[in-house]
Amino acid sequence: MNIFINIRDFLYYNRKIILVIFFFLLFAVSYLFFKSDDYDELVYLDDNNIYDSEVVDTVIKKYIVDVKGAVKFPGTYELEEGKRVIDVINLAGGVLENADLLSINLSKKISDEMLIIIPEINIISEENFINDFNNDGKISINYGTLENLMSLNGMGEIKAKAIIDYRNNNGMFKTIEDIKNVSGIGNSTFEKIKDYIKL
């Protein structure tokens, strides 16, 4: 009985100290509890940096694209990953009136260091072409139509189309020898037609 009385007296006379210890322990337990929850929300990216998983931003790739040819403002443009050729053309102010878009895939996604050439429509009147042809009897590889090119010796429809596609994508031929850069036209074909073609 004396033991319980002594304990009661001890608690009574030391109640303030006991209350302080109680609240300190309560605070310590609460702090450790909430600290463990915060820890679960952290993501370790490396040994030196810790970031909250909710604030880690996704890195957006930037591509540099060069556009040339029949656009209002040719040059290089920076676009985000996922953009398409039509977006580049719009940044360049749009196409000119003489732009030939038949061979351009406007929906193609861009890539870094991509070169886009918008060709111009080759405008030449039939009368002028006939007069020019009659002057020297040669076919222009820069302005000749599909039918004109097919009239050359050993030149079928496939090779004639390849010539037109090449000049649309790469610009006009600088020399007649440049026609050998066209797929399917080698030295043997060039030797057959070199005396009958011109720029």
Written account of the structure:
The protein is α/β, with parallel strands linked by helices and 199 residues long. Helix content is 41%, strand content 15%. It is built from seven helices and seven strands; from the N terminus they run ααββββαβαβαααβ. It has helices spanning 2-13, 15-40, 85-91, 126-136, 146-150, 157-170, 187-193; strands at residues 42-44, 50-52, 62-69, 75-80, 114-118, 139-140, 197-198. The protein has a three-stranded mixed β-sheet with strand order 4-3-5. A two-stranded antiparallel sheet has the order 1-2. Strand 3 (62-69) and strand 4 form a beta hairpin. The N and C termini lie far apart (123 Å). The model is unreliable at 39-47 and 50-56 (pLDDT under 50).
